[in-house]
Amino acid sequence: DLASSTHVFLREEMLRGTFHPSYSGPHEVLQHGDKVFKILVKGKAMTVSIDRLKPAYILSTASPSLELTPDPEPRPTEGTKAQICTTRSGRQVRFTDFYRP
Questions:
Q1: What segment(s) does the record annotate as region Disordered (predicted)?
Q2: CATH number at residue 21
Q3: CB 65 within 8 A of CB 75
């Protein structure tokens, strides 16, 4: 996947604290090589070993148009009687309004 990727994440070599990310990016790949890649970091071309790279998977910007789904059936209000569900053992189940079918 790394050989065919268009963008990569770059592992930072310096020691960082626990809450700092160890990878920067995604960075654009300018040139692929066997052991080194040339990538664009902060506007400058940089040659980096493949040991420090991880492929970045980027979604295409041309996504298909989203279709609108019809509104679900309205939930029962307090005035209507809620449907009582029973388990196989005969116990009654009462769902909160959020989970009502």
A1: 64-86
A2: 2.30.30.140
A3: no
**pLDDT tens profile 62-93:** 655 656 666 666 665 554 555 678 899 989 88
Beta strands 44-49 and 92-93: pairing type? Answer: unpaired
Residue 56 contacts residue 88 (beta carbons within 8 Å) = no
State the pTM of this model.
0.56
Cα separation, 2 vs 51, in Å, equals 11
Number of domains in the chain: 1
Helix and strand totals (H; E) in the chain: 0, 7
Collect contacts of 3-6 with beta carbons under 8 A, ≥24 apart: 3/32, 5/29, 5/55, 5/56, 5/57, 6/58
Q: Assess if residue 11 is contained within a domain.
A: yes
